[in-house]
Amino acid sequence: MTDDIIEEKQTPQIYLITPSEFELSTYPDVLAACLDKVEVGCVRLSLGSKDEFRIAKAADALREVTHARDVALVIDSHVMLVEPHGLDGVHLDDAARTIKTVRKDLGDDAIIGTNCYASRHNGMTACELGADYISFGPVGDTALGNSEKAELELFQWWSEMIEVPVVAEGALSLDLIRTLSPHTDFFGLSDEVWKTENPAETLAILASAMV
Question: What share of the chain is helix, strand, coil (3-state, %, to 5)?
């Protein structure tokens, strides 16, 4: 993802986050339809299950879909599953606390990103420790998490001062996408897509707002 940094700002890319629960018999086809409809920079496997076997099976199934389309696949938190299942990296949820250890475990080629919520300090620390990208969010109104929003000013500052790519995620809307587009590198889309009747069409509509 760091290869996408250039001097002139480009249109943000899509960072597609899976639902926390899905049917393995059908979801890979739904994901494939999305990837065939709209260009996606990265997919994050974000199952809420604690069943290692289920997560591993999902990782294998989604890897076939994403890698066939030359799209990177990272997994939430489960560092030990990255190498055995041929994944491209991991997305951490602890800001900067474990990046150094995870980088040592996975090596220089792995993608390592981390959720820094709404903390500029944690984002800068994560970059110093070797994160390939950081995410801020939620950017929209939601009762989930600690309810602290990542505001527009944070993304404006980041885009002006920091070269490491940033993902905007959490309760996104068309208006928020239009507002944040000049200041973010990726939009992390999840329920905004999956909770609609036609995820591929919805993704295309959301992508059209990225300018």
Answer: 40, 15, 45
Report mean pLDDT in 10-residue bins for the chain, 211 residues: 51 98 98 98 97 97 98 98 98 95 97 97 96 97 81 98 97 98 98 98 98 85
The total of structural domains in the chain comes to 1
- Could you tell me if residue 8 is inside a domain? no
Q: Are residues 126 and 144 in contact, defined by beta-carbon separation less than 8 angstroms?
A: no
DSSP state of 26: T
pTM listed for this prediction: 0.94
| Residue range(s) defining the domain that contains residue 129 | 13-208
User: Has residue 6 been placed in a domain?
Assistant: no
Tell me if 189 sits within 8 A of 16, measured CB to CB. Answer: yes
Residue 187: which H helix or E strand, with range?
strand 186-189
CATH number at residue 92: 3.20.20.70
